[in-house]
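Suppose you are handed a protein chain with no further information: no name, no annotation, nothing but its sequence. What can you learn? This example shows the usual starting point.
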Amino acid sequence: MTNSSAGLTREVPLEPGRSALLIVDVQNYCCDRTGGAVVDLSEADFEAGYGEYFRRLEKETIPNLQSLIAACRVAGVEVIYTVIEALTRDGRDRGLDYKITGFLVPKGSKDGRVIDAIAPGEDEIVLPKSASSVFNSTNIEYVLRNLGVERLAICGVYTEQCVESAVRDACDRGFLVTLIADACATATPNAHDHSLRAIKGYCRTVSTAHLVAELDSFVCRQAS
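A reasonable first move is to predict its three-dimensional structure. Written in structure tokens, the prediction is:
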């Protein structure tokens, strides 16, 4: 019997025209000290629950996202953003889990905007979602198919929640997924590392430096 999976691999580079970068939920709600997820916390509670996470955002995740976005734009790789944001002001359209948890980012609110440090270009796609998985709560698969995307690089927050959901669902829908580990963040290093181990079988996992070099190499080959 022929092994139909022979020669198949997840270890494939991003290729402009067939690839996109998906940035998950890097928005004011959960990535800014004045955002709704943390604004009401005392300094002690903020430090205990989110201090390490915000330091990681500032020192590693956001600078890496900026490098990735710049490299993708130069190479012609589509940059797509998701944000937690209801379709209504009162959030009545939210998924049941978000209602139970109390996640509410009203339509049109500051909390629903991508942080200024990685602001979308004027013609880049931003998809609002009201559940953890962007594939379950938006038309992203339809959009990616229309764009001709087969390979999807994913990064953002939180690693073990919305990022992990996106990786698993993209894989199950037939996309070749690359996870950029150091362009993700969550509340604790242990949760981040555990998530990376848990989804290792669903994706290729690389660093920002690796992916930027991969894209730069493609640009150089095209120019020569």
